[in-house]
Amino acid sequence: MKKIFALFLAAGLFVILSGFYNDGDPWDVPAKYKSMKNPTSADDGDCKDVGKSLYDKHCKSCHGSEGFGDGKKAGEIDTPMPDLTTDDFKKEVDGVKYYQSFIGRKDMPNFEKKITSEEDRWCVINYINAL
């Protein structure tokens, strides 16, 4: 009985530590994205509509309606789903958010071919910033 308990304890510890490892895996964002400036206005009503529409189409299923990381597909993904409404995410520069959102990595797909307009991509960033 002690061996079974120890086995379950070890397995549980492994799962917990694996989660921390994935959360702490920093993005390697190239310098050109870190210095990118958002050329669109956050106050532009048309841009807000475009950003929301594209977010709903491409992002909502994983990141959720309000950006909490609780979308319908979030549980199917191995990588922990980030909450886009946290202060840590909000303080990131827009170029980093752009890279993370459109270049992607691991379970975060590349959206360069799905959202081809540069202006539309920035509208999505504006929408995410407003969550």
Structural description of this entry:
By secondary structure, this protein is mostly helical. The chain has one domain: Cytochrome Bc1 Complex, Chain D, domain 2. About 55% of the residues lie in helices and about 0% in strands. Helix 3 crosses helix 7. The N and C termini lie far apart (about 50 Å).
Q: Structural class, please?
A: mainly alpha
* C-alpha end-to-end distance: 50 Å
CATH third-level topology: Cytochrome Bc1 Complex, Chain D, domain 2
- Let me know the average pLDDT: 86
Distinct helical segment count: 7
Order of helix and strand elements from N to C terminus:
HHHHHHH
CATH superfamily: Cytochrome c-like domain
Overall number of strands: 0
What is the total domain count?
A: 1
Helix content: 40-55%
Indicate the overall shape.
globular
Give the second-level CATH assignment, the architecture.
Orthogonal Bundle
The CATH class is identified as Mainly Alpha
- Low-pLDDT windows of residues: 5-23
Radius of gyration: 18 Å
Strand content: under 5%
Major sheet description:
none
Tags for this model:
131 residues; 54% helix; 7 helices; mainly alpha; Cytochrome Bc1 Complex, Chain D, domain 2
